[in-house]
Specification:
alpha/beta, 2-enoyl-CoA Hydratase, Chain A, domain 1, about 50% helix, binds octanoyl-coenzyme A
Length: about 270
């Protein structure tokens, strides 16, 4: 996997883990068109590598550079110059980005180290889990700008916290602390410092990397696809995934190793 230099991102690939840092601390990591372009390029590299099936990476962490923010939203300065049609194009481009994150066959953790507002909260919600520091601050303040969510917030916030709480947060633009986000189920875990946050995310991804990669990928795909289906449709999809698992060498190795009281060595197919 080869990542070039990006003007707005720092990207590393170590021990099967890809870390992406959005690095515009002077603008609280606001999502400028350049950030979106750079994220798209990184997603292209990751998607191509994932399609090769060699499991070159087993997890992704996305975080914000500097001390104050994960991402303080879309770049408001840039938005003031956009026409309605350009805004629609930007929104659909950002939707494609979130769908590409969700389509990765490995877990993605948003490590939220400060403000996650508007597009920042929406980017975090496109990740499998959100880990945060206690000083994190979440919100969808679009209505305070005469705007509405354009990066998935109308859809994903209610999937995470339920329709009543989502509506309240979307209509008031109220910011919530990391602790409240944890209580609402938006956040998986809270950490005392940025170092602990990143270590916690790495530990979870390392634990997942010890499981069968094909099984984790199938669970991720299935859980993502059953949302919005009826119970009957969801269960039918699950039965298909269950069938699929029985075609993999990982399933043969995992069950064999259990019975032999050994650690499995998953081949990854
Ligand atoms: N866009 C551009 N610049 C920003 C943004 C932003 N979203 N947020 C902060 N900055 C800049 C500030 O302008 C400031 O720059 P400068 O030093 O040049 O004046 C610098 O970052 C530091 O910010 P502050 O001085 O304001 O820092 P504070 O600690 O006082 O306040 C806040 C921090 C509370 C986070 C405050 O900066 C703030 O309210 N920011 C805006 C948050 C917001 O409203 N976000 C939502 C934006 S709308 C959105 O995200 C819609 C997404 C859908 C997009 C779909 C495609 C179009």
């Amino acid at each position: 996997m080869h990542f070039t230099e990006y003007s707005t991102l720092l990207v590393s690939h170590e021990d099967s883990l890809v870390s992406i840092t959005i690095n515009r601390p002077e603008a609280l990591n606001a999502l400028s068109s350049q950030v979106i372009e750079d994220l798209g390029q990184v997603l292209d590299v990751l998607t191509t590598a994932a399609d090769d099936g060699d499991w070159l990476f087993r997890g992704v962490i996305i975080t914000g550079g500097g001390e104050k923010a994960f991402v303080a939203g879309a770049d408001i300065r840039e938005m003031t110059a956009m026409t309605a049609d350009e805004a629609w194009e930007c929104s659909t481009r950002m939707h494609a980005l979130t769908l590409a994150f969700e389509a990765l066959p490995v877990p993605v953790i948003a490590a939220v180290n400060g403000f996650a507002l508007g597009g920042g909260c929406e980017l975090a919600m496109a990740c499998d889990f959100i880990y945060a520091t206690s000083s994190a601050s979440f919100g969808q303040p679009e209505v305070s700008l005469g705007l509405v969510p354009g990066f998935g917030g109308s859809v994903r916030l209610q999937q995470r916290v339920g329709p009543a709480v989502a509506r309240e947060l979307l209509y008031t633009g109220r910011r919530i602390s990391g602790d409240e986000a944890l209580r609402l189920g938006l956040v998986n875990a809270i950490f005392g410092s940025r170092d602990e946050l990143l270590a916690g995310a790495q530990k979870t991804l390392a634990a997942i990397a010890r499981q069968s990669p094909t099984a984790v990928a199938t669970v991720k795909r299935t859980v993502g696809r059953v949302d919005g289906l009826s119970t009957t449709e969801g269960l039918a999809l699950e039965a298909e995934s269950f069938r699929q698992a029985f075609t993999t060498s990982d399933m043969r190795e995992g069950t064999r190793a259990f019975l032999a009281k050994e650690k499995p060595a998953f081949p990854g197919h």
